[in-house]
Amino acid sequence: MSVPKSVLLVVNPAAGSHSADVTAEALRLVREAGPAVDLLLTRHPGHARALARAATGPGGPDVLVSLGGDGTAHELMTGLAGSPGHPALLVLPGGSGNSLYRELWSDRPWQSVLETALSAPHVRQVDLIRVAETRGTALLGASTGLAAQTLNPARGNAARGRDRYEKALLDALRTGFPPYPGRVTVDGAEVHSGDTVCANVGGGRYRAGRFMACPHSVLDDGLLDVCVAGTALPTPELLRLAREGHHVVREGVVYARGRRVVLERTDGRPLLFEYDGDLVRSGDATRYTLDVVPRALRVLAAGASHRAEISQDRTHETPRKASTQIT
Ligand SMILES: Nc1ncnc2c1ncn2[C@@H]1O[C@H](COP(=O)(O)OP(=O)(O)OP(=O)(O)O)[C@@H](O)[C@H]1O
Q1: ipTM greater than 0.90
Q2: Cα of 70 to ligand 1 centre, how many Å?
Q3: How far is the CA of 51 from the centre of ligand 1 (A)?
Q4: pTM exceeds 0.80
Q5: Closest residue to atom 7 of ligand 1, CA basis
Q6: Where are the domains of the chain?
Q7: Neighbours of 90 (CB within 10 A)
Q8: What is the whole-number distance in angstroms between the Cα of residue 69 and the centre of ligand 1?
Q9: DSSP, res 15
Q10: Contact 293/222 with Cβ under 8 angstroms?
Q11: 16 Cβ closer than 6 Å to some ligand 1 atom
């Protein structure tokens, strides 16, 4: 991609780490980098999607900058995806978990990311996840069980940033989180059946900013990774190990990869399910079908010279039973 001439900066003022100072700094840095820049603040949930959709039309910007959290990036993605040659999406960390930012840029300071992305832009065409039952699309990932259950409590607690999700997870452990009877199928083969603490599908490696739920996931390999935790591994231990992605080698944790993942609850009760941080409220659904949509979104990401730094963030653990469960 050539150096962008125009940028639309979309800021979510309701996102977890929003500040007027950061917005002003981002605006200044874009101007200093050279492109013409417009700034728009989202006014309500869903607004970012409409802004992104409008940006795909004639006269739209070369780059759409998301200054919000994963929810803002998700909304922008839904407005861009499906429009060939759409403006490239640059994700900056203005939210709480900021998992997508970490996935793409590790923990590099956002100011240097902005400068790099605008002066030497590198476009990566990343996969998306299509959820058949909701007809929705995810970028970061999807999950059932523990992580899905703690989303709403996380929004309500007083903690900020990544602590918000961690506090909700620890609260859930304290009050007793009930596993559910589940089944997970990958490309038609059952990889897990029985008591389930959570099933995570990526997408990205990180969830809640801090946990490497699917540590081997690659954003643009045309495949979905799935990691399922049963009850053999105590849940506090699961959370501790998941910070570095070390849970995947432990007894009771299954890791697999494929183009279609089906997540089910087998006792007839509704399956708690979220994607990109939004809980699905579809009544009594017990099953969700996730298909990869290969290379469907253009994002600005680290080029070759910065990739090494980011890949150091990747775990070196080999998942348990990798030979049979990773295709
Ligand atoms: N003006 C607004 N008022 C209220 N909510 C808004 C507004 N603009 C956007 N939103 C909503 O804010 C929600 C939270 O945004 P976002 O997910 O980006 O931040 P976060 O939850 O703090 O971060 P993360 O998802 O990284 O943990 C989104 O679901 C979005 O729809």
Answers
A1: yes
A2: 8
A3: 15
A4: yes
A5: 44
A6: 6-121, 136-296+315-325
A7: 28
A8: 7
A9: S
A10: no
A11: yes
